[in-house]
Amino acid sequence: MSAESTVRPTEVVVDARPLLDAEAGVLALAVWPDDPSGADGDDGDDGSPWIGPGGAEVAEALGLDLFAALERDGGTGKAGEVVSVQVYAEGRGAASVDGEVDVTRVLLVGLGDGSAAAYRKAGAALARAARGADRLASAVTATADDAATRAFVEGAVLATYALAGFRSTPVPAAKRPLGTLVVAGGGAQADVVAAAVAVAGASWTARDLAQTPSNVKDPEWLAEQARRIGAEHRLDVRVRDEKALADEGFGGILAVGQGSDRPPRLIALRYDPPNAGPGTPHVVLVGKGITYDTGGLSLKPREGMVTMKTDMTGGAVVMGVLSAVRELGVDVRVTGLVAAAENMPGAAAQRPSDVIRQYDGTTVEVLNTDAEGRLVLADGIGYAVAELEPTVIVDVATLTGAATTALGRGHGALYATSDRLAAALRDAGEAAGERLWRLPLVDDYRFGLDSAIADVAHIDTEHLGGGSILAALFLQRFVGDVPWAHLDIAGPGRAESDKAELVKGGTGFGVRALLYWLEAGAPVA
């Protein structure tokens, strides 16, 4: 059975020619809720929607009354609203200079308040409305700034994600993503569109990894995907197998993986910018890569296991980020560590009450084998501190149900030892459409990790509650004095249904936020 997706993302190109010369069978125009300036003949105070640049020319060339179509369908111009207008036979030859390309539809796409978030929603809605089309030319971003253009393109590419390599028949043409999106007119910058495509492609990569079933996906499979990404994007890749992990003392990763006959791996991907020097900052990203999580001997109920193929989303995010840093011209060093294991209740599985030794020498009393993610992350963080001379460490993981209870599926939990690092990540997430909410590292809760027989317990021993906070406090002890942030993405790492640019299943949440942050130079303090 192949794990390769047979569905490809929408190609995006920039064409400076007018919309009607872009040789596309489907055209897209922006719709705004009202026109306070009174332009385009609207008096500006009746609240009626108006159509953005290119609308008059398209209406005349195709013989359409676009405002009547809006009124007929109750179009208001709110963000993500799409009104589809069929083109009659006499108007269809207007989509190219020579009149040989037929226009079959015009899509009127609402832009709401014109924010980047609204453009992202508009791009996603447009892509869904244009499924199966070969080529669509858009003037939706004609008056957009770079941030809005980028959001629009990212939304358009991500909204029709699918992993289809496991079906016995191909996805029907009408359900496939739009083939090519043409960003028409002279407004869009090619480098802005290219950056958006790179970021969306990185998220697509993370989703592919997260969505792959766990009968295919194990730690070695994940390592092979890292090697492929490294070869394609000129990254150094090193994989430690179970023997190397044992020789070097990665006790947490080994303990989590010892119940499975598919042994664990520690995957490292390294990017050095072309102009790197001794003073170039070094960012280390650490991702939880639990390729399947039964809970181990602390076994989950059946319904709790169904989604656990996505429990390696943190690792998928790290690999997705590394796949795009070179294309985006990131000018800091970046190392991605993926601590990969399968948590199974085999004969050799660790037991509740076992004591293990992490990479940095800390002994840990394991009281719940279903709290395994923090054990593999602790090894990755400890190794980074000891060996990689990081400027900053950010870990990302689908770590606790408590974070989902606190924040739902719309926000990731953010913990940080630096106010500026927290603010920079929060701002990057807001710009990228991946919202983060900072939660506190509560000193008064630290005693909740006290153990009677080891240096520390890995879960709450005092019934304090605040499970996401206790998990973050456990990880913090391995950071030393290196600036550090922890992203608990258990909520937004998986979507229950299609919405905006998200699709049901593993979302790759964190890829966009981290790439926006890295593009800004990874500000820390």
Q: What is the CATH first-level class name of the largest domain?
A: Alpha Beta
- The CATH architecture classification of the largest domain is 3-Layer(aba) Sandwich
Q: Mean pLDDT, nearest integer? A: 93
By secondary-structure content and strand pairing, the structural class works out as alpha/beta
The CATH homology group name of the largest domain: Zn peptidases
Strand content bin = 15-25%
Global morphology: elongated
Number of helices in the DSSP assignment: 15
For the biggest sheet, the summary is: 8 strands, mixed
Written description of the protein model:
The chain has helices spanning 55-62, 66-73, 116-129, 146-158, 190-211, 219-233, 242-248, 251-257, 302-305, 313-322, 373-387, 401-407, 419-432, 467-476, 511-519; strands spanning 11-15, 26-32, 50-51, 82-86, 105-110, 135-138, 180-184, 236-240, 265-271, 282-293, 333-343, 354-357, 363-366, 392-397, 412-416, 436-438, 456-457, 484-488, 494-495, 505-506. Mean pLDDT is 93; it is low at 36-45. Helix 13 (419-432) links the parallel strand 15 (412-416) and strand 16. It contains 15 helices and 20 strands. The longest helix is centred in the middle third of the chain and has 22 residues, at 190-211. The strands form four sheets. An eight-stranded mixed beta sheet has the order 8-9-11-10-14-18-15-16, with helices on both faces. Strands 1, 2, 3, 4, 5, 6 and 7 form a seven-stranded mixed beta sheet that branches. A three-stranded mixed beta sheet has the order 12-13-17, with helices on one face. With 525 residues, it is of the alpha/beta class. It has two domains: 11-37 and 46-188, Leucine Aminopeptidase, subunit E, domain 1 (3-Layer(aba) Sandwich); 225-407 and 451-520, Aminopeptidase (3-Layer(aba) Sandwich).
